[in-house]
Design a protein that fits this description.
3 helices
Amino acid sequence: MSDQDGKAPIELRLHDSAQLFNTLDPFPFREGDISADAERYIVEWAQELPKGAPIAIVVHLQQPENSARAGPDLAKALRNWFAAKARAEAQALRDLFRDGRLAFLIGFAGLAICLFLSFLLTQRFEGPFTRVFQESLIIIGWVVIWRPAEMFLYDWVPLLRRRRLYQRLADARITVQTALAPRNDAAAPSPKVS
């Protein structure tokens, strides 16, 4: 389902704007932390939307007395929050590749040492015990290199996926509607964020 601009909507129905923020955060809304429940709700809905569709977030507020101040602050707070999350995921991705390069050097050195020791054993000794020890060194060498390979092959994918999702949420069109504003009855209602 999408709104008139083709954006996939995520709707939040709140009693007041304070429900969206971490109640322990002393900063004003513009710099405040979004509550974990609100973030989880928005992210879970965004994950269900089509990957290429732009996102729209519609916040329905029941208390209009704060609407003049809260509207722009809510939109800016949501954009800033998800932009910061996208930057954090980008940094985590850079850190992963930096750590992966170091782990690869360590793993490659460990593999080379194990293979060299295995080669020396086969050249100097014979017997079943030597063969077991040789095979153990080869297995240890490949186990040492597995973690760096896993970092480069698999670990970056969820970080990249989360970064893209957070960036889509940071780029979302955010609309704040008060109880006095007209509601779009064509959109399906969303559960309340508490």
